[in-house]
Each structure stands twice: as structure tokens, then as C-alpha cells.
Task: inverse folding
């Protein structure tokens, strides 16, 4: 595997790179107060950020935390706007070097991927194979090990200044789960220091997708499962008989425990025939086609009622959001 090209820190801290990262940060979020405040003086803010990064003075700010019910309690953590700019600039500089090694059927991050393509591939293999095994990981984001994540990143990242920046970003997320609100929302599930990616940032989403990339290669190269796809920690294996899927399940449980300190969700361990419909990423998928799942329809109705009660603008935003979810693009 190729390393990240040299001098990545200089590239990601160029003003043009920070400006491009700011454009990605503000996309679809210009109505938010924190983004609007940054935009009032964006050029000076980016110059200050560049100076702090290159002078070694940059440190991430505390994340803003809030609780949502979705339907179970979840802790959402939002980094400061300037920190989101850094996340986008960092991953624009180093991300493509890692993404080139992703397998074709990993759909969480990268150009030409996404949930719609994942669901369409699920349908394609459902029609092609007789059986499927849908697995996910118990408490995935809460249990990502920072040391393992850093080791995987630094194996191909040679610029010491970029490595220090990655350390700062990971450490800032670590503080999220030590906050009193995290203990209140998560209780005994709150991870100890050194574990857990906070939900709510592009860096966490990208890292969560990257962290299981070695598992993808294990499934395809070692287990040689004929049909496989993954979207974050949801992954599905397909075959023409149940026995190879059962063997793969046992091997994956061992691999995840030894290599990542993770465990499979015990509620999803059953091999199912593909003549029966399945639910994947909020869609009910049958060999006849794709439709919104029952859970998605219930949540859609409840959220639209809440949005309508809040006014026209929240309702319009909700409708647009669900339209993007339900309407498949041409692929």
C-alpha cells in the first residue's frame, strides 16, 4: 500500500485548502447561527486558523453536546466550526490515499458510494444468491480503540506534523465521553478514556468507515465470501448455502475480538433465505424491489408532524431531507 504523499501538513494548511474545506463545512448549514457567525469574517478566521496550525498553537475547542431520542437516547457532539474546517482539510489531504485501498463494495465513504448504492447492491445479490447473513457490531462507535485507529493511520502517514494534528483531533473527541452529559445519557455504556468516536463530525464518520477496512479485506481475501457489502458497521454476507455463512460468522467474531476489541450484535446472527424480505439501511428489500421500511415510515410521520408544529421552514427542511432519502438517483 502506498503512503500518504509527503508534506501533507503543508498542503492541508495552504489557504486555498482551508478555503475549500470551509466551503464543504458551510454546505447546507448556512442557516445555523455558528456557521453564519464564522461566515461574517471568514477570511480573517481562516488566516488565524492557518497561522495557529503552522505555528503549532492550534488546539480543538470543546465539542457542543446535546441529547436526542432516536428512538433510544443518543449523544450528539458537534465540533466548533473552525475545527470542522480542520477536519475537512485534513481528510481532503490524507483521505484519498487510504480510500484507494477500500474494496469496491464498501459504501460508507468515498466518491461514488453511499446508502442508495449499498441498498441497490444488496438487492442485486439478494436476487443472485440463496442465503444472506446480516451482521452489525454492538456499540460500534462507543468502542473504537484510539490506539488501534492511530496505528492504522500512522502506518502510512509519515509527516510528523500531520500525525500530531490527528492526535489533537482524536484527543478532542475523547473528552466528549468524559463529559457529565455523556455519563447521564449513556450510563454504564459510556466508554473509558482512549475509546469511542463521537457522533456528529465528518472525522468520526470517516474514521468509523476506515477502522473496519481490514475486516473487508479479511472477508474477501481470506474467507472468500462470494457476496459481501458494508455500510459503516452494517455488513451483509451472501452465499448459496448457509454453512459457509455460519463459518464466516464464527471467523468474523474471532477476528473482531482479537484485532479490534469489538463484538457482534447478538440480535443479528441468523442466516436468512433470500426468498424472504430483509431490512437494510431503513429500506425493506425483497427480490421484487425496494420500499421504505415500516420503522422508517413511522419515524417519517412523527418527524413531519413535529416539524409542521415548529413552522414552515422546519417542515420544508424535513421534507427535503426525506425526499433525498427516499428518492433513488439514477446510478
Result:
Amino acid at each position: 500500500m502506498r503512503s500518504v504523499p509527503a508534506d501533507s501538513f503543508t498542503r492541508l494548511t495552504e489557504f486555498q485548502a482551508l478555503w475549500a474545506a470551509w466551503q464543504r463545512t458551510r454546505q447546507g448549514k448556512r442557516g445555523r447561527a455558528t456557521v453564519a457567525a464564522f461566515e461574517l469574517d471568514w477570511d480573517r478566521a481562516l488566516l488565524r486558523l492557518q497561522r495557529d496550525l503552522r505555528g503549532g498553537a492550534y488546539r480543538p475547542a470543546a465539542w457542543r453536546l446535546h441529547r436526542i431520542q432516536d428512538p433510544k437516547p443518543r449523544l450528539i457532539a458537534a465540533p466548533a466550526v473552525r475545527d470542522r474546517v480542520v477536519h475537512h482539510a485534513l481528510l481532503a489531504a490524507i483521505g484519498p490515499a487510504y480510500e484507494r485501498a477500500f474494496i469496491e463494495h464498501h459504501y460508507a465513504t468515498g466518491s461514488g458510494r453511499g446508502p442508495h448504492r449499498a441498498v441497490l447492491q444488496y438487492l442485486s445479490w439478494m436476487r443472485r444468491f440463496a442465503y444472506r447473513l446480516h451482521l452489525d457490531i454492538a456499540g460500534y462507535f462507543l468502542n473504537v480503540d484510539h490506539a488501534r485507529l492511530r496505528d492504522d493511520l500512522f502506518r502510512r502517514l509519515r509527516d510528523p506534523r500531520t500525525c500530531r494534528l490527528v492526535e489533537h483531533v482524536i484527543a478532542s473527541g475523547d473528552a466528549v465521553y468524559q463529559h457529565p452529559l455523556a455519563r447521564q445519557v449513556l450510563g454504564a455504556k459510556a466508554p473509558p478514556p482512549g475509546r469511542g468516536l463521537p457522533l456528529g463530525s465528518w472525522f468520526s464518520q470517516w474514521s468509523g468507515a476506515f477502522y473496519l477496512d481490514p475486516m473487508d479485506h479479511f472477508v474477501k481475501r481470506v474467507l472468500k465470501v462470494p457476496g459481501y457489502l458494508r455500510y459503516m458497521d452494517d455488513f451483509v454476507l451472501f452465499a448459496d448455502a448457509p454453512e459457509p455463512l455460519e463459518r464466516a460468522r464464527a471467523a468474523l467474531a474471532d477476528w473482531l475480538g482479537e484485532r479490534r476489541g469489538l463484538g457482534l450484535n447478538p440480535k443479528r446472527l441468523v442466516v436468512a433465505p433470500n426468498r424472504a424480505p430483509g431490512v437494510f439501511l431503513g429500506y425493506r428489500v425483497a427480490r421484487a424491489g425496494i420500499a421504505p421500511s415500516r420503522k422508517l415510515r413511522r419515524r417519517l410521520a412523527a418527524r413531519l408532524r413535529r416539524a409542521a408544529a415548529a413552522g414552515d421552514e422546519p417542515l420544508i427542511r424535513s421534507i427535503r431531507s426525506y425526499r433525498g432519502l427516499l428518492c433513488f438517483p439514477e446510478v
Remarks:
- The chain is about 55% helix and 15% strand.
- The beta strands are 64-69, 73-78, 131-136, 227-231, 234-239, 271-273, 278-280, 283-286, 289-292.
- The mean pLDDT is 90.
- The CA atoms of residues 37 and 81 lie 9 Å apart.
